[in-house]
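Trying the structure run again after the queue cleared.
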Amino acid sequence: MKILNISLFALVAVLTLSIAACGSESEPEHRTFNLEISEGKINLSDEDLKVTQGDTVTMNVASDEHGVFHLHGYDHELPVGSGEAAEFTFDATATGRFSFTFH
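Done. Tokens:
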């Protein structure tokens, strides 16, 4: 179990939520990301999830085991249960790159 958690932490630590610092003339958008964690691996099509400052972000997180999804920088923690999707929504107010982990 510890090896699984360490492997998951290492994999997820390299994945980040990146928020563009430069302003854009486009209107803020609502962006939704569906994250699935299965057998210690996160399924993502891109390594970075990109949003623009001012966007509203919804993250749907599902896992095949119990744990806590943690978005660093914003300090959001979301309990995730086995077989149950969890959701949280926040406004992208901070700029920079923020990693997320599953503990």
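Residues 7 and 40 are 7 Å apart (CA to CA). Worth checking whether this holds up in the mutant runs.
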